[in-house]
């Protein structure tokens, strides 16, 4: 399902403008009027999101620490040794993307007022506690005693603070110089240990971004940094409401754009959305190809209507009927409700479906499709001629990190961890929860899409390796610079091309007559 809305975009836009205004004018002269001019919005819009300047400053200060945290998580996900964990934690705070003149001057200006604001103090203390604890653990994993690790962590934290204050003078003290000094200090404090800077991914990412369409580049400008959000039992209603507010206009537009008709259908008691292309309906839907589609949403949100930008697009391209069941969602209906509903609907579908057919799923729906097909195979049910998985979430066990957390503009690792906890607490290793950990033999040929910014990027590659090891034919499409289920966004030329490629794959494997794209 779509993951973004305009409210977090506006808030980030205003916070970025606040940093720029403080950098140019100083904190006293950074009024709502000046910030509004910097952001290119009306002052009333700022007051809509932030009651007063104090609230805006607090949120700006908090956003800097959110960027620290996201950077650390990204780097920790790639760390393979205690030494790499240490450098990941420290590098995250002196990366050029963090040590911008605007961010440094804003931090120093607001930090000078910390004594006046208890909330600022709580933010600072909470971050310091987490940082020092995590850094101490990494140092202890190198064989350093508890007390010494604690002392070293504190020394390194003070050193990082000093780097930040010196970077306020960008003429003589640059992020590159800060990085050089960091590794010099590490070698002095920890002789005999090998520390080396991690590979710099910035040139690769910059080249990928430059090659994106103008619409994709604008999307990244609008939605990065990604807004932080936690999901719990108490906040699930608000989370779903925000998702629906974003999805509904896109769903209505998709119905018109792809010229499909919608109807409710029952598959063994599971309510299912039936999507039929109007161009083919006159000839009679009975003779059309049929496909089975599972929506995404982390098992905690979403519905078939939310996925119409993809499912309707495929129905139109393939001149096929698409059946999309409404499986139950957590936390009201935790695992195994979703795989039970999916398999129940699939049994009814294959009993009457025109063959050959395909199974399609995106994100959590992709993982659910895998789990469902594993169960269908074990039960002896008909299997599809092909399966398509868009950015599939196929391992909820936490066995691999999310190196693209903070780079993917549509979803965060925090949301995924929260969703996994709500969906299947204590069962994340079960194959029907994490089908990547199950038996993949005997499954149909697969077409899998991802992007180099996709938060599922590592999982997708692990899945491809596992499928191929199980003897399954796999076609992987890894889109440079793109993100989690980017096919949702019709304004992106890349989304259109991806759906065209998926359709070509399905026509080939489902023996549907080839037509020009």
TrEMBL record:
Keywords for this protein: DNA-binding, Hydrolase, Repressor, Transcription, Transcription regulation
Q: Which residues lie in coiled coils?
A: none
- On the tree of life, the source organism's domain of life is Bacteria
The HTH tetR-type domain is annotated at 8-68
Q: Does the keyword DNA-binding apply?
A: yes
Q: Name one Pfam family in it.
A: TetR_N
Give the PROSITE patterns listed for this entry. Answer: HTH_TETR_2
Q: Which InterPro entries match?
A: AB_hydrolase_3 (IPR013094), AB_hydrolase_fold (IPR029058), BetI_C (IPR039538), GDXG_lipolytic_enzyme (IPR050300), Homeodomain-like_sf (IPR009057), HTH_TetR (IPR001647), Tet_transcr_reg_TetR-rel_C_sf (IPR036271)
Query: Which stretches are labeled DNA-binding?
Result: 31-50
NCBIfam families to which the protein is assigned, alphabetical? PRK00767.1
Q: Which PANTHER family match?
A: AB HYDROLASE SUPERFAMILY PROTEIN C4A8.06C, ALPHA_BETA HYDROLASE FOLD-3 DOMAIN-CONTAINING PROTEIN-RELATED
Write the protein's name: Transcriptional regulator BetI
């Amino acid at each position: 399902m779509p993951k973004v809305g305009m409210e977090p975009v506006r808030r980030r836009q205003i916070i970025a403008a606040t940093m720029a205004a403080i950098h140019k004018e100083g904190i006293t002269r950074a009024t709502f009027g000046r910030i509004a001019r910097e952001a290119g919005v009306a002052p009333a819009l700022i007051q809509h999101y932030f009651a007063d300047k104090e609230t805006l400053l607090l949120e700006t200060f908090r956003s800097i620490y959110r960027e620290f945290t996201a950077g650390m998580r990204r780097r920790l996900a790639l760390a393979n040794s205690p030494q790499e964990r240490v450098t990941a934690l420290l590098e995250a705070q002196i990366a050029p993307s963090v040590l911008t003149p605007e961010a440094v001057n804003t931090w120093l200006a607001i930090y000078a007022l910390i004594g006046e604001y208890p909330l600022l103090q709580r933010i600072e203390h909470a971050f310091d506690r987490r940082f020092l604890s995590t850094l101490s653990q990494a140092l202890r994993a190198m064989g350093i005693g508890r007390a010494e690790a604690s002392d070293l962590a504190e020394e390194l934290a003070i050193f990082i603070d000093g780097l930040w204050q010196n970077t306020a003078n960008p003429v003589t003290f640059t992020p590159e110089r800060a990085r050089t000094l960091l590794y010099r200090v590490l070698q002095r404090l920890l002789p005999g240990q090998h520390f080396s800077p991690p590979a710099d991914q910035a040139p690769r990412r910059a080249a990928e971004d430059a090659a994106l369409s103008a619409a994709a580049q604008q999307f990244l400008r609008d939605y990065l940094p990604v807004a932080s959000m936690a999901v719990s039992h108490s906040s699930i209603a608000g989370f779903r409401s925000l998702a629906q507010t974003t999805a509904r206009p896109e769903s209505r537009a998709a119905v018109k754009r792809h010229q499909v008709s919608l109807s409710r259908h029952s598959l063994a008691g599971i309510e299912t959305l039936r999507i039929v292309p109007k161009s083919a309906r006159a000839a009679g839907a009975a003779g059309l190809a049929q496909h089975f589609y599972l929506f995404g949403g982390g098992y905690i949100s979403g519905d078939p209507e939310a996925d119409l930008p993809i499912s309707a697009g495929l129905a139109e391209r393939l001149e096929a009927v698409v059946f999309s069941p409404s499986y139950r969602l957590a936390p009201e209906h935790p695992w195994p409700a979703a795989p039970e509903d999916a398999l129940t609907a699939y049994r009814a579908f294959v009993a009457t479906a025109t063959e050959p057919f395909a199974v399609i799923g995106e994100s959590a729906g992709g993982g659910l499709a895998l789990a469902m097909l594993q169960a269908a195979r074990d039960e002896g049910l008909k299997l599809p001629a092909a399966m398509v998985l868009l950015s599939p979430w196929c391992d909820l066990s936490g066995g691999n990190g999310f190196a693209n957390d903070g780079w993917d503009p549509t979803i965060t690792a925090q949301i995924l961890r929260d969703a996994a906890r709500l969906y299947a607490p204590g069962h994340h290793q079960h194959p029907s929860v994490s089908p990547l950990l199950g038996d993949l033999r005997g499954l149909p040929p697969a077409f899998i899409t991802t992007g180099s910014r996709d938060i599922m990027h590592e999982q997708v590659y692990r899945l491809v390796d596992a499928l191929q090891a199980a003897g399954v034919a796999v076609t992987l499409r890894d889109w440079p610079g793109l993100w989690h289920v980017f096919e949702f966004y019709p304004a992106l030329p890349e989304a259109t091309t991806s759906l065209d490629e998926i359709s070509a794959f399905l026509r080939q494997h489902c023996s549907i007559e080839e037509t020009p794209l």
